[in-house]
Design brief:
The structure is a homodimer of 233-residue chains.
Chain A (H helix, E strand, L loop, with lengths): L4 E4 L9 H14 L6 H19 L3 H15 L6 H16 L8 H9 L4 E6 L2 H11 L7 E5 L4 H11 L6 E5 L2 H11 L2 E4 L22 E2 L6 H9 L1
Chain lengths: 233, 233
Amino acid sequence: MPIEVVAFDADDTLWHNEPLFVDTKAKFQELLSAYHSAEWIEERLYETEVRNLEHFGYGIKSFTLSMIETAVELTEGRIRGSDVQRIVDFAKSMVDQPVQLLDFVEETVKTLAATFPLVLVTKGDLFDQESKIARSGLGDLFRSVEVVTNKDRSTYEAITNKLDVAPDGFLMVGDSLKSDILPVLDMGGYAIHVPYDTTWRHEEVPADVLDGYEFQEAASIREVPRIVGELSR
Amino acid sequence: MPIEVVAFDADDTLWHNEPLFVDTKAKFQELLSAYHSAEWIEERLYETEVRNLEHFGYGIKSFTLSMIETAVELTEGRIRGSDVQRIVDFAKSMVDQPVQLLDFVEETVKTLAATFPLVLVTKGDLFDQESKIARSGLGDLFRSVEVVTNKDRSTYEAITNKLDVAPDGFLMVGDSLKSDILPVLDMGGYAIHVPYDTTWRHEEVPADVLDGYEFQEAASIREVPRIVGELSR
């Protein structure tokens, strides 16, 4: 079956994202350093983030509300108003951050767009993702952009249905095994994993979960056109 | 030209939404009542909300970050941590609120779905909107759901393009003149205005802006099938 559509994840696949969260966490730890150790702050923030996913979903605003809750909790309510404001300012600085493409992204996406219809499949906050797509300068290379609240098998089935593409005509490129690779393989599609330096703990999967899965691994997005070419043969 | 697609706004057209914000504002005013008058709190909150639209967009999380900023500002930083937490809890209670359909919505949408492909076009937070659509029980009646960050003429042009529908084959039903009616008329489509009791100030338009626009006004969504029938003749 030939590949009909090539889909890309966005955050940490096309542009840097996780470092923005890591940097902000460091500022947050600094802000609360009079109260607790960096490790303990990180641990409690992570717990709050995961607990809040069901209320607020993914993205910067959700992360910010979790930082605020964690700050109140860890200071036993003694957090100062000015520090609460600083946390809100962290959020503004995050959303206003320039979009930094990863190496080789622009040429790779252009090359592939000449041969395949490209789709962007990204999780998170609609407002923030649309803004990043616009600022990336890559928007016009994608035939469609799907901002989704979660990436599981049924998400990818809905997308292939909508695009009228067979599951085994769909290839996904992304950095997250949990969100970009495994659910696409479960559906019967193809996937190329391009690992990123840093992965949010919530996106990690234990090694044994990978048993029996077959997918391609690329050290750089630059290798994707060659691998797609080989798979299409 | 016959109507090819009937599109609906969601918040305050299919289900109650604005009262949730109004009620939460009342709780917020109560929370800060030791510091300022309700009117002044409302005024400053509105200013913060509008200023933050460019950073955070529409929706509950954005509104909550604006409440927190306003609370810090209006208490000159003296807001207590426990009150900050209460504001975050307002947000959780908002997202967890049951979806309350407006009167006659269910039967009207079912009736129309038998004759026209229906589309839902809603502004706001993706996570929150998807959750409300799922909980409304109406999701399956809509051929497609478009959650958008803004509703202007180009938004509706992109939607009609995507649906492969001519602008004058597109009819929109909604409560907001600014977001649901005028941009659709500007595109060359049809619109039925079904006013809601309460409108957020930011959605209001001055009366003279309406000069020269032609659209239908319905007191209840129940009148929509008849009006659509007349327009299609």
